[in-house]
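Margin note: ligand = flavin-adenine dinucleotide.
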Amino acid sequence: MQYTKQLEIKYSVDVFVAGGGAAGVAAAVAAARSGKKVFLAEAAGCLGGMGTTGLVPAFAPFSDGVNIVASGIGYEIKQALKNTVPVNSSEWGSRWSTIDAEELKREYDRLLKAEGVDFSFFTSVCDVVCDGRKIDAVILTSKSGMFAVKADIYIDCTGDGDLCALGGGEFEIGDENNCVMPGTLCSLWAYIDDDKIGNDQSEFIEKAYADGVLTYKDRHLPGMYFRRNGMAGGNIGHTFGVNPVDEKSLTESMVWGRQSMTEYEKYYKTYLNGYENMVLCVTAPVLGVRESRRIVCDYTLCFADYMKRAVFDDEIGRYCYPVDIHVMNTDDEEFERFSNEYSIRYGNGESYGIPYRSLVPVSFSNVLVAGRCIGTDRQMQASVRVMPGCFITGQAAGIAAALACETQDVRAIDIPKLQAKLKSLGAYLPNAK
Ligand SMILES: Cc1cc2nc3c(=O)[nH]c(=O)nc-3n(C[C@H](O)[C@H](O)[C@H](O)COP(=O)(O)OP(=O)(O)OC[C@H]3O[C@@H](n4cnc5c(N)ncnc54)[C@H](O)[C@@H]3O)c2cc1C
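Resulting structure:
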């Protein structure tokens, strides 16, 4: 059917940010600190994306073991949180920190308000109006109906690359069959005795499967992340075969994820010490999506760059998390594939560069992308997707957008100027002059 409608232009701003997860928050704050008028639209009822709405229980490392690589806005946010604790005492585990989602939501609210970023919750990008390679306006839908927003520069921080895809931009998704790694419905649990718990939560998966306690043998169990007062965030179970950009598929995964909690509760209570009295407080209101569209950008950050610890002239940050493509099914071979890939770790102080070109979608002249949907191959998506990586690309996109407002051309900015501004924000850029 054909449908036309007259819309109010509710906001005219310098920079529009779609999505308020780790990337969107960093992008909006960075652009606002550069003196730009920013409007951010967030589909959910809070900022933080997967780290809050999705109840993802921990931050991956901000450090490469020597340097704080995710420095700047992301590290500032992490340092402002009082309730985070190291995940465990191993060297690798001590670089992770748990998330108290309520505290993180408040910190994001506070920060955006303090920086003068205008934002609306329950507001989704539902369409894009293009004039050739330039986005002219985005169409949003909210409780008040539909309205338009115009900006000089648009930043896609939706995690799924919605803005670019709705504008007809080029993207890739998943493997050669367009299959993405599974999601997880994250959860929050109480009454766990952390004095009694052991380390390996997946030790009894085979037995539980043989005993019929678990109906499928998923050996890949990220597990429970302990916070305080007997509470833990659950990253347990995998929704195999989910399509993250199809609401019917997401619906099926949510239904399955909620059902699976009763199996996992029985698993923990039956086989593992310290979980005897555990109670499920809540499951997340959205599915935890690890992989979605990858927007095709001027440079595709690739696994070879990971292996050679790449350095780029237009580097906007460096990161170090390993390739973490979760198991695609429950076959033993697939678990071996995951374990081998995830164990390709850097030594202390090592990292790879992220070029500015990986944030510049090939299809547009006034759009940037940040977060888990930047221009990478599949393996690098599975590294840079974690929250510290998203803070790095988010803050770079925010500064770059501010620099590009005058020309409305994201390719016309001065790279040394971008790098100098990022450094003054605290970014880790050891190779920039
Ligand atoms: C189960 C699971 C476990 C994970 N574990 C870890 C971990 O331990 N440590 C770690 O650091 N990372 C972890 N990650 C990865 C990390 O949480 C995400 O990749 C990261 O949060 C992505 O950040 P983002 O800002 O790109 O996207 P998101 O966090 O997904 O934020 C995107 C935001 O955009 C909004 N949005 C989406 N579409 C629209 C639209 N059309 N209009 C308006 N708003 C929109 C969403 O509501 C959301 O708030 C995990 C992810 C999952 C799913």
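The chain is about 30% helix and 20% strand.
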